[in-house]
Design brief:
By secondary structure, the protein is of the alpha+beta class.
Length: 258
């Protein structure tokens, strides 16, 4: 069975997980969960309740706190076919609430993006002055952790790397090492900071890059993980270069067919 994706209309179903909490200090009676169908029923309600709990927490963060008692009452009235609000009005109310939530989210995203821009610019200015930090013409900053000699990739090559990506506060947001498997990708299919930076490396070398936001994910970021205007740091180890195959020239192809 394909279960529907919960929406704001489904917020009333929080009652499934919240009824015991709102029992007005009456001694809670444990549910009977002997048969599998009973456990499935309880599990379905619990899963919806957990989803809606997270949903309500997001509303709280945005200043759109909803009254849980009214949510419970709306749920009870609805399943007893006694809702005091008509379906069309409920739909309009939920659409309006959804629009308010999205507007608040956008407002917060803009505020976070502006804050990240200021923090990032200050960090780049200070970091560029540190010993051992080199800066490319485009603004990428890097430190050579382990240097090797040999061929370097070009933008059209595919590379195999191990990497750890962190925010400026040191929090890791992505790591091939945590996954236990190197990443393989065409070098011209990633953020500009990677495309340019990895071309400075030879196989076996390890660099730490500090990438300005305009060479990473820009003002829009990469929701939900990376806020807009984020300066990102990557420790990258180049493991292998897989050269792209050049397309045969017309003359070469004709000669091969003879």
């Amino acid at each position: 069975m394909k279960f529907f994706k919960p929406t704001l209309v489904a917020v009333a179903l929080l009652a499934v997980a919240g009824c015991q909490e709102d029992a007005k200090k009456e001694e809670a009676k444990a549910p009977v969960l002997e048969a599998q169908i009973q456990k499935q029923a309880y599990g379905l309600g619990a899963s919806i309740g957990m989803y809606m709990q997270r949903n309500l927490e997001e509303h709280d963060k945005l200043g759109l706190t909803l009254d849980k008692e009214l949510i419970v009452q709306g749920f009870v009235d609805s399943i007893n076919d006694k809702s005091v609000i008509e379906k069309e009005e409920i739909k309009a109310l939920m659409t309006n609430l959804d629009a308010k939530m999205k507007a608040k989210q956008q407002e917060m995203a803009v505020q976070e993006s502006e804050a990240s821009l200021a923090v990032g610019q200050k960090f780049l200015e200070d970091n560029a002055k540190k010993e051992g930090v080199m800066v490319t013409e485009s603004g990428i900053q890097y430190v050579v952790i382990n240097a090797t000699e040999g061929d370097k990739p070009v933008a059209t090559d595919t590379v195999k790397v191990h990497y750890v990506g962190t925010f400026l506060n040191g929090e890791t947001f992505d790591s091939s090492r945590d996954r236990g498997e190197p990443a393989v990708f065409p070098l011209n299919r990633v953020i500009r900071g990677w495309t340019e930076g990895v071309q400075l490396m030879s196989v076996g070398s390890k660099f730490k890059f500090t990438i300005p936001s305009d060479l990473a994910y820009g003002p829009n970021g990469n929701p939900p993980r990376i806020p807009g205007n984020s300066v990102l740091e990557f420790e990258i180890e180049l493991l292998e270069i897989q050269k792209s195959e050049e397309a045969p020239q017309v003359g070469d192809q004709a000669a091969a067919e003879k």
